[in-house]
Amino acid sequence: MAGNGPLEGVRIVELAGIGPGPFAAMLLADLGADVVRIDRPGGAGLAIKPAYDVTNRNKRSVVVDLKDEAGPATVLDLVHKADILIEGYRPGVAERLGVGPEQCHARNPRLVYGRMTGWGQQGPLAQRAGHDIAYIAITGALGMIGKPEEPPAIPANLVGDYAGGSLYLVVGVLAALQHARSTGEGQVVDAAIVDGTAHLSAMIHGMMAAGGWQDRRGANLLDGGCPFYGNYETADGGYMAVGALEQQFYEEFVTLLGIADQAPARKDLTRWGELREAITARFKTRTRDEWTAVFQDSDACVAPVLSLREAPDHPHLKERGTFVEHSGITQPAPAPRFSATPGTVRGGPALPGAHTEDVARDWDVQSLITDDKEQA
Asked: Is 241 helix (H, G, I), strand (E, B) or coil?
């Protein structure tokens, strides 16, 4: 596959899974790595048609049955030519299948072996099943989100799977790749969602230790407890997001909102309820689009709350090309951006087994062809 991005020339083997592993591999592929996804016969079990699974864009796919006698050897042939491997099995499963770190490092001592799990490789819960909501629950992250009189709000699977999981795996394998290229020594990267999610809350823990954060929902500066950092309903049932924290931004906010003459002092916490009521009432006098027009050229830190379908048409995101259309699917463009080696969406979602011959040729792994014929 023609490279495109700062990771051009980096070869990655991805053992098919769901959730954070595929997303991490997509990010690496977006940055130019040649990611070969090893799909299992019958698919990975995700309830989405392969042609729409955007997390498999920019990759190539081969099908290998790791439970077949020849399967592990074929994977190890690919590992021999790879820089990084990513797997998301429960601890011990890869070892039982014959493609664990010890087996892989015996073939390729320089290999970076990335392991993506929810609970991690060790600990009382390591062998238990789980999903994003449980991982972020025990770290304290879930308990911070939502209104105090309601159950914690569920932030889709963005905080755990992708922020605490995928992104930490990507940072880990790239750091380990740098080490491997400097020393010739590969290693295992244990990326646990619980670890990454806990790490995301570092600033909050510091604020709590300093007495600047209460350990409950809706009582703090950044969790909706502050009346000038929150969401407000508009006349048409839409919402506006307000983040006017700094004094100069707050002054512009209340002026444009039209309550500067009635708003109580922002630092008077005893009157925050009164301030919230004034902001709430005022926002309900106009529609979301009308308020968007009021604030669009200001530093009041106010923005409309858009849906997933609306977001690609926002003028700022449209001009930046934050979303692109490829293979008939509107999807986020690769991020971050690079001035010399920009990433692009080079190919649509890789269909299982669609690239067997190409990978066998490019990686010089002829056992793929043999294994593919035997499965057929």
From this structure: strand
Q: How many other C-beta atoms can be found within 10 angstroms of the C-beta atom of residue 214?
A: 13
Per-residue pLDDT at 46: 61
Of 48, 82, 52, 78, the residue nearest 64 (C-alpha): 78
DSSP summary character for residue 83 = S
What's the chain's Rg over C-alpha atoms?
Answer: 24
Q: How far is CA 242 from the centre of its chain?
A: 24
Residue 265's pLDDT is 87
Residue 42: per-residue pLDDT: 79
Give residue 4's pLDDT: 80
Catalytic residue positions? 131, 161
- Residue 138, burial from CB neighbour count under 10 angstroms (0-12, 13-18, 19+): middle
pLDDT for position 199: 98
Give the per-residue pLDDT at 48.
85
Taking CA atoms, 68 is separated from 64, 80, 147, 322, in Å, by: 8, 20, 51, 43
144 by DSSP, 3-state: which? helix
Helix spans in 220-366 (H): 247-257, 272-283, 288-295, 315-320, 356-362
Strand partners, 233: 239
Q: Which residues pair with 62 in a beta bridge?
A: 38
Q: How far is 274 from 277, CA to CA, in rounded Å?
A: 5
Residue 46: CA count within 13 A, CB half-sphere: 20
Task: Count CA atoms within 13 Å of residue 175 on its CB side.
Answer: 10
Residue found under tokens 């969401």: 231
Parts of the chain with a pLDDT under 70: 1-3, 44-47, 371-376
**What is the DSSP annotation of 114-134?**
EEEESS-SSSTTTTS---HHH
pLDDT at position 2: 42
